[in-house]
Amino acid sequence: MSDSQTKFVAPLRRMRRLRRSEPLRAMVRENHISLDDLIHCIFVEEGITEPVEIKTLPGISRFPESMLEAEIKELQQLGVRYIMPFGISHHKDAQGSDTWNDDGLLARMIKTIKATAPDMVVIPDICFCEYTDHGHCGIIDGHSHVCNDVTVENLVKQSVCAAKAGADMLAPSAMMDGQIRAMRDGLDAAGYENVSILAHSAKFASAFYGPFREAVASELKGDRKGYQLDCADGRQALVDAMLDEQEGADILMVKPGLPYLDVLARLRDRTDLPLAAYHVGGEYASVKFAAMAGAVDERAIVTESFIAFKRAGASVIVSYYTKQFAQWLAEDKKA
C-alpha cells in the first residue's frame, strides 16, 4: 500500500473532547483568577489637592491624601480586598526618616485606610526610595554605596512604625541582606508578632521599573544594581528567596513578573510557602499603550498574564491592573 493510501488510525485519546464548549473547558480549567488573588497598588502624595496623572502609567494617578478615603471606599465597593500603598513624600532626607515618624506619611496612609475600611488588608511597601533625597533604598556613603547594616536598622524602625499604625502585612523591597530576620525580630519584640511579611525575595534590577520612577517622583541618580538581582542570575535569585524563608518571611515574591516566570516556577518547586508575583509598571504600560493603539484585546491580555502567574505557581499577584480588573468584573455582573 502506498503512502497516499495509508489508512488514518483514529486516536484513542482525543484532547479536543474537553475543549469543544465553554462549559466543558470551565469544568476542567486548572487555574482561575478572582479579586482574592490580586493586590492593588495606590500612590498617595502629600501636599497636593488634585490627582496627578502618571503619564507613563495611563489610567493611574497619584492621589492627594485628602482623596484617599474616597478612593478606598470606591475600591471597597468594587470588592478590592488587598492594598499596597506607596507614599510620595515632600519631607525627604538622606535617611528617609519620615518613614518611622508616627505622624509621617507612611503612618498616616495606613491609619486612613484602616479607619475607612477596617477589613481591607493593608500591605505597605517597606523601603526608602520614595522618602530619600537621593532615591536609593537606604543610607548611602560618599561613593553612593548603600550601607547594608545601618539601612536594615532603619527598616526595623520603619516596620514597627507601620505595624503600630495598623498594617496587616509588610512588603519589604529594599533587598538588604538580613532584612527579613531583623524585621521579624523587631516586630516580635515590639509586640507585633502577628504582622506578616511579604518579602520581595527575588527582586531584579530591571528596566521594567521605568514607569515606577515617575510614579513615585524618584530622585535616583544611577541604578540599584549593587543590591538588586542581576537579570541573568536565576540560581542566585533562588538563594535569596530561600534565605528569606529561613529568616521568617511568610510569602516570597518574584519581581518583575512575566520576564521571570522561570524563577517563579523553579521557586514553586523548592518551597511550600505562598508565592507572589509583581506585575510591574513596565508590564502594565506595555499592555496599556498597546491597547490604546488598538493592537491588542486589553482584558484578554491582562487575564492571560494573570493566569500565567497562577500557572507558574503564584498565589498572589500585585498589579496596577487590579482596580480595572475589578471594574471589568463589576461590569460583568451588570450585563
Overview of this structure, please?
There is one protein chain. Helix content is 38%, strand content 15%. It is built from 11 helices and 11 strands. It is globular.
Based on CA atoms alone, the radius of gyration comes out at: 22 Å
Largest sheet: 11 strands, mixed
Q: Tell me how many strands there are.
A: 11
Number of alpha- plus pi-helical segments: 11
Secondary structure blueprint with pairings:
Layout: H1 22-28, E1 38-45, E2 52-53, E3 61-64, H2 68-78, E4 82-88, H3 105-116, E5 121-122, E6 125-126, H4 148-165, E7 169-172, H5 179-189, E8 196-203, H6 210-215, H7 234-246, E9 251-255, H8 261-268, E10 275-279, H9 281-292, H10 298-312, E11 316-319, H11 322-334
Parallel strand pairs: 1-3, 1-4, 1-11, 4-5, 6-7, 7-8, 8-9, 9-10, 10-11
Antiparallel strand pairs: 2-3
Any descriptors?
single chain; 335 residues; alpha/beta; eleven-stranded mixed β-sheet; 15% strand; globular
Can you describe this structure in just a few lines?
With 335 residues, the protein is an alpha/beta fold. Helices cover 38% and strands 15% of the residues.
